Structure formats: C-alpha cells, structure tokens
Amino acid sequence: MNRTLINYIVDVPLMILTVLEGLSGIILQFGSRNASYLGMSMFDWKHIHVVAGLPMVALFIIHLALHWRWVVCVTKNTFGLNKNNAAQTCSTE
User: Fold this and answer.
1) Domains in the chain: how many in total?
2) What would the 3-class secondary structure string for the chain be?
3) Which of 11, 27, 67, 88 could cross-link to 31 by cystine, CB 3.0-4.6 Å?
4) What is the pLDDT of residue 27?
5) pTM for the complete prediction?
C-alpha cells in the first residue's frame, strides 16, 4: 500500500471523528440537560463524545507517527536548529 493511501485511510476517519467530537462537545457544553438535540438526549451525546474520543486519539497518534519526520524538520527550521544553519525543504512524503 502506498503512503498516500495510508494517509487517506487514517486522515478521513480522523477528520470525521474530530468533527463529531467538536459537535458533541459543543452540545454538551452549551446545551440544556433536559433538551434533545438532533433527536438525541444529552446522555446519548455524552456517550458519542466518549466513544468517538478513544479512536480519535489512537488515529491522531498514528497520524503523528506517519508525519514525524515532517514535524521534526519543520521544528528544526522554525527554531533554527539545523546543523548547517540553512532551512531545509520539508517533504510530507
């Protein structure tokens, strides 16, 4: 499997889970306890928030591992930590 496909397989579910976490978090933070939002109770939203959070964290760790070289390269460029004192071009591949 090529790297682009692996990134796609990780990043699309990560994006969906992140949106779901954000939506459920907003509803839990600002919603009324006894109200129903999008046909679901606050208990349902809390359950969704917890259940979506665990795979989101796992996928984020995988995402970070897949892009670790890029993170290190950009960090070195940002803080001037390159050995040759010249900015590198940081590739995502």
Assistant:
1) 1
2) CCHHHHHHHHHHHHHHHHHHHHHHHHHHHHCCCCCEECCEEHHHHHHHHHHHHHHHHHHHHHHHHHCHHHHHHHHHHHHCCCCCCCCCCCCCC
3) 27
4) 95
5) 0.81
Task: Say how far apart CA 93 and CA 35 lie, in whole Å.
Answer: 47
For residue 2, what are the CA distances in angstroms to 5, 9, 25, 63, 86? 6, 11, 35, 15, 31
Is the residue at 39 inside a domain?
Answer: yes
Range of the domain at 62: 3-66
Angle 65-67-68 (CA atoms, 0-180°, nearest 5)? 65
